[in-house]
């Protein structure tokens, strides 16, 4: 039976470090502050917003919610982004993407200040992940995968890692973060030929396809450490991309859904807000 890589202890360890850093900032008179920008009332946006806000507030960071109607004008959205960029009291901005149509998320991505880009959506942050320069912030979910591997002592150097999914939010940055830790990385997507045989060869398998059952028994092998990023609903129940029942008896370790990556993502976000506040102090 595999080891379950639960997210809660990983999040707790990150929160402890964040709490210490945040305390130091409060002593210097800096109140780390996250602004969350949401357009519309999508249930998954609200869930992410509430979990991010709860995590930040519990640690002692302030949260400002900027809520726009689903049919808000692009100009109004951009005014809010520019105002948050210019507001020295706001250290991090989380924009809930994708925006409802016809709002243009790409314009927001290009306009957001890289210094406040705590979820790693701007080109500057992505370039920082690509180059390893440390500029900007890595996308929180991709970093959460790495935090889980680190916490549970799963070394990446020299390992064969396979990432299923190539989005800018998860797959690509996760692949680059694994590469930075000296894994040998393969990225799979919907056009990958014979994905199961590629996946089976992985020692570290990150599933970020957004499809329940995308990773079935034919993708799994013993000694694999599986990080399931997927958040899907099947039969009214939340599940990941990996067929957990098929995986658990076979692989060496696996993250549950829920209770795995998602639990760590909001802790990483809060850590980024505090780091953004610390950087603002350093100038
Ligand atoms: P996305 O933008 O839809 O990207 C999905 C990627 O997976 C695409 O690159 C797609 O390939 C690939 N893909 C889809 N089905 C596949 C299949 N059957 N075989 C191989 N590749 C396949 O999704 P995302 O934003 O990256 O999110 C991925 C999942 O992570 C979703 O379930 C999302 O809800 C979840 N998520 C979780 C968290 C968290 O904190 N836990 C945060 C963010 C996202 P193509 O490029 O060829 O289309």
Descriptive overview:
This protein has about 280 residues and is of the alpha/beta class. The protein folds into 2 domains: about 30-115, Rossmann fold; about 140-260, Rossmann fold (3-Layer(aba) Sandwich). About 45% of the residues lie in helices and about 15% in strands. The chain is built from 10 helices and 11 strands. The chain has helices spanning about 5-25, 45-60, 75-85, 105-110, 125-130, 140-150, 170-180, 195-200, 245, 260-280, and strands at about 5, 35-40, 60-70, 90-95, 160-165, 185-190, 205, 225-230, 230-235, 235-240, 255. The strands form 3 sheets. The protein has a 6-stranded parallel beta sheet. NADP nicotinamide-adenine-dinucleotide phosphate binds near residues 169, 170, 191, 209 and 230.
Question: In angstroms, what is the radius of gyration?
Answer: 19 Å
Largest pleated sheet: 6 strands, parallel
pLDDT under 50 segments (min length 5)? none
Strand content: 15-25%
**Number of separate strands:** 11
The appropriate CATH architecture of the largest domain is 3-Layer(aba) Sandwich
Distance between the termini: 50 Å
Shape verdict: globular
Helix count, DSSP H or I runs of 4 or more residues:
10
**What is the CATH top level name of the largest domain?**
Alpha Beta
CATH superfamily of the largest domain: NAD(P)-binding Rossmann-like Domain
Which small molecules are bound? NADP nicotinamide-adenine-dinucleotide phosphate
Which strands sit side by side, in order, in the main sheet? 1-11-8-7-5-6
Average predicted local confidence, pLDDT: 97
H and E string: EHEHEHEHHHEHEHEEEEHEH
Roughly how much helix do the residues carry, as a percent range? 40-55%
CATH fold annotation of the largest domain? Rossmann fold
Number of domains: 2
State the secondary-structure class: alpha/beta
């Amino acid at each position: 039976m595999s080891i379950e890589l639960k997210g809660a202890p990983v999040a707790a360890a990150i929160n402890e470090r964040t709490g210490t850093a945040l305390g130091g900032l409060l002593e210097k008179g800096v109140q780390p502050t996250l602004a969350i920008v949401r357009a519309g009332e999508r249930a998954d946006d609200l869930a992410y917003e509430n979990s991010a806000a709860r995590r930040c507030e519990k640690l002692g960071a302030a949260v400002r919610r900027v809520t726009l109607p689903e049919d808000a004008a692009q100009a109004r959205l951009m005014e809010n982004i520019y105002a948050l960029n210019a507001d020295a009291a706001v250290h991090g901005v989380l924009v809930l993407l994708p925006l409802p149509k016809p709002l243009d998320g790409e314009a927001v991505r290009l306009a957001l200040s890289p210094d406040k880009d705590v979820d790693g959506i701007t080109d500057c942050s992505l370039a920082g992940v690509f180059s390893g320069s440390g500029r900007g912030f890595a996308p929180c979910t991709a970093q959460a995968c790495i935090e889980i591997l680190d916490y549970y002592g799963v070394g990446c150097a020299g390992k064969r890692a396979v990432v299923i999914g190539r989005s800018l939010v998860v797959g690509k940055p996760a692949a680059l973060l694994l590469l930075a830790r000296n894994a040998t990385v393969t990225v799979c997507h919907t056009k990958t030929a014979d994905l199961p045989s590629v996946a089976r060869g992985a020692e570290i398998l990150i599933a970020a396809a957004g499809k329940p059952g995308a990773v079935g028994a034919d993708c799994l092998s013993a000694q694999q450490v599986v990080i399931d990023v997927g958040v899907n609903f099947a039969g009214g129940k939340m599940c990941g991309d990996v067929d957990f029942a098929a995986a658990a008896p076979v692989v060496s370790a696996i993250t549950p859904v829920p209770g795995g990556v998602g639990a760590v993502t909001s802790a990483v976000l809060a850590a980024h807000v505090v780091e953004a506040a610390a950087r603002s102090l350093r100038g």
